[in-house]
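Most newcomers find our protein records easier to grasp once they have seen one. Nothing more is needed to start thinking about how sequence determines fold. Here is such a record, shown just as it appears in the course material:
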Amino acid sequence: MPLLHVLRPALPILIGASVMLTLSMGLRQSLGIFLQPLTHDIRISVSDFTLALAVQNLTWGFLQPFTGAMAVRYGFRPLMVTGSLLYIAGLALMAGAHGVVSITIGGGILIGTSLACTATAIAMSVTARAVPAAVRSTVLGIVSAAGSLGALLSAPIGQLLNEGFGWRVGLLGFVLLALLMIPAAWYAGRIDRIPLPKPAADDIGNATAAMAARTAFGNTSFVVMTGAYMVCGMQLVFLTTHLPSYLAICGLDPMLSAQTLGMIGGFNVLGSLFFGWAGQRWNKLALLGAIYILRSLALGWYFTLPATPESTLLFGAIMGFLWMGVGPLAAGAIAEMFGLRWQPMIQGLAFMSHQVGSFLGAYGGGLLYDALGSYTMAWHIGVSLGLAGGVIQIAFALICPPQPPSLLRAA
């Protein structure tokens, strides 16, 4: 049966989730464009700005399990619409900022809270629930790919407005884009009308939130995946936060940073589609480990050589292909191991680790730059941890393949 025919009843939900995801992730990934002009204009340090983004990542990560549990209790629509409004408020506060407090509250707390309601974990949970298991991994890859288009749109728009009218106008342009998240979240919220499959007597779907969390952390495959997820966050947020600054230090055209983020977004589409397709056929957790290793090799190659426009765009293409492919793989693995009811909360528990890594990538990179005057130590750490995390993930995926747990086995 053609895939489109299978998906037709769920198309409004999938399109809404895709648009919401592409804006929430694309705008957030493009904030590094404003690092240099914003910090110079309002006289704050690079580490002050990156601290705000680190607070964003920690807020996002530590709220994600709670917003996942709230989606189970109250439904996805009120959660996603509220998150969209918080995103708009956070960007508006950043656009009017005159000091580090406004940047931290707007770009850190408000946008971080919004991402816990609108970004990958929630969008992937909505998608997983909307489609049959037989095509779930492929469709997760399609939605993740659509969600990758945001950087292609927001990074060039933000850079053009920034160069032509200043960083405040650039952020106001982001506010206008974020308004589109509200109708997208409303349509994605139709998922609340679709009932979950009735669980078996010993299925985790019958568990309370606390029982579901204990079952997840009693699963070796989940624990290893969660630990390796930290490295993923560290590498990605280090790049989105510090690559524009690194290119400026190298004396390259400021537009190159926007072009590279756009390149990441474009190849993100291909990577998400590929890894969604691959996850339907091969071990999802082993594929995650392969992504971490390949990313680390790409980071080591790029930062070892002198930066040029050609090498930077090629690096963006490679990293883009390996970027959000983790989304459909992690979401698909969690749905297979634990079912659909508690997927948003359990995925949020794993994502907490990812965001601890994001905090270290954003703030740690800023601290190392302020202390040492270069990013050399930061990328050395990112490459080393990425290689170690990838090898451990593959080893455990092959030695201890994931088993769908039940409450009886967990007890």
